[in-house]
Amino acid sequence: xxxxxxxxxxxxxxxxxxxxxxxxxxxxxxxxxxxxxxxxxxxxxxxxxxxxxxxxxxxxxxxxxxxxxxxxxxxxxxxxxxxxxxxxxxxxxxxxxxxxxxxxxxxxxxxxxxxxxxxxxxxxxxxxxxxxxxxxxxxxxxxxxxxxxxxxxxxxxxxxxxxxxxxxxxxxxxxxxxxxxxxxxxxxxxxxxxxxxxxxxxxxxxxxxxxxxxxxxxxxxxxxxxxxxxxxxxxxxxxxxxxxxxxxxxxxxxxxxxxxxxxxxxxxxxxxxxxxxxxxxxxxxxxxxxxxxxxxxxxxxxxxxxxxxxxxxxxxxxxxxxxxxxxxxxxxxxxxxxxxxxxxxxxxxxxxxxxxxxxxxxxxxxxxxxxxxxxxxxxxxxxxxxxxxxxxxxxxxxxxxxxxxxxxxxxxxxxxxxxxxxxxxxxxxxxxxxxxxxxxxxxxxxxxxxxxxxxxxxxxxxxxxxxxxxxxxxxxxxxxxxxxxxxxxxxxxxxxxxxxxxxxxxxxxxxxxxxxxxxxxxxxxxxxxxxxxxxxxxxxxxxxxxxxxxxxxxxxxxxxxxxxxxxxxxxxxxxxxxxxxxxxxxxxxxxxxxxxxxxxxxxxxxxxxxxxxxxxxxxxxxxxxxxxxxxxxxxxxxxxxxxxxxxxxxxxxxxxxxxxxxxxxx
Length: 666
Ligand code: WTA
Description:
By secondary structure, the chain is an alpha/beta fold. The chain is about 30% helix and about 20% strand. The structure holds 5'-O-[(S)-ethoxy(hydroxy)phosphoryl]adenosine (WTA).
């Protein structure tokens, strides 16, 4: 739980006037009750606003049984058609779709590389690439591929080209290591991997292709690797017969190539996206096409209130679900002009983002609490004097937003006058489900809350027995299916049932703690399981433990999330060494680096504490909850299950020693 202000839910309410829709919580609630009393009719009315090649026969089918819900069955459509083709027969044809900025700047701080693509540019690029992928790589509907690309326009272009062909893609965040990439390539059985030679990050050259080569040593079945020349590095190794440059792939493809969009079934998988859970390797969350696009359409309108005059900027990375839904498919389907940025938020200086906002007159900003806290820490001088007057809506996502960060951003970026919400959702839900929704209703905001469930979404907070609770902490659940919900876990449908639908009967278990307040607003407090959020990035403590245990010096480890002022949470590892190894500063550094290499820099433990045993139950389960209490200095609560009390004393001692050491350094 990372919201730092005590006694939430917060009492402060901020009411904005002058909104054409409802401003009354009660009338919103009445709309909401009606919407969930017949979810099929409700969502069918939304889905009608998309263009379908063939209408559906049934709105919702459990096939073969719940929870395997399929939306708009019998309907046919194509996500790439919706995102590009749809606009080119309208006045939007030459409207800007993407304004992209590379990271490098000139001495006066202006970007050296800016690319502007209209919808027609996008249409042509997507078609050419789809043409080459179909004819030269032979990829067809239902094949799987992996994408390991940085934030460059080729990433959305590729995703749209693949969606056009019905090829199922899995995007892997470009900050993940070779091993993490290999795991995902192997699980998805990808025939082709798309990558780039390198990209810029905080002024450094990150060589992606090298990581791919290392990963594919364990995935020999991959037939082709397509490499985009982002940096034009001359020494990029290319394996003959397997590797091909992006430009070579496109060579000879006519500028006006056209590929008819595959008319896929509504439930055809659009993509797989791997995400962390409590146990085992990351799971491949599979999303459909029809339900997913329907939810994105609704939420782009309700939550972002997008209009043709908007300049929209979602600051996420496309490697995560936020980027899939709210950089690629959602905004492009709505025909907005959006900003895309390659690099680090504070490069070359902490006002890089604000210069971008000014340069393009951003009107809608979708960002994260961790980014806001980072800027807060840099101090007001970096925001003072910048022009935020164009911004009319702000939203945040990824973790709970603490009220201080909310107020700071509302004051500076929002000039204390714009709607500013915290959109709750997760990889599994496909899109936003609980959020302030200025496009629907302008009900009072409260700093730190998520707000009411969106229309058509039956979200609630329940106790251990699954009974609704109000005013007290419980578990967040969704009681009815919604479009955009995951189809299954790739290759492991039983795990889908077990992880999400077994905690409470007939309810989707999100794994979050939440409170529903007296107005019915939901406040998501944080994860109720062994998942942590580091700068909004989702990591399983189990994965970090596995990485540590794969090191020769480590016998056992337990990782817990420790609250952090900027990152929300950071991983802290308790480590038991194997015989023959002893604790040292060097070993600590080596282990931290080891985790970086096995998973990626985001997973690196902030601290490593050496102990000789871990607190366990009599049946041998590690009691991470107790370790967390030690870290946050809170009473342990019930310890009756603990087998050996001295393990906790030892953990506490190790932590106290570390704290003293850290104090000494300051
Ligand atoms: C957390 C990110 C509070 C939550 C889209 C959820 C949030 C997990 C919020 C999913 C928010 C996301 N307020 N918590 N506005 N948004 N979360 O799959 O714990 O990376 O379960 O999806 O992030 O993370 P994921």
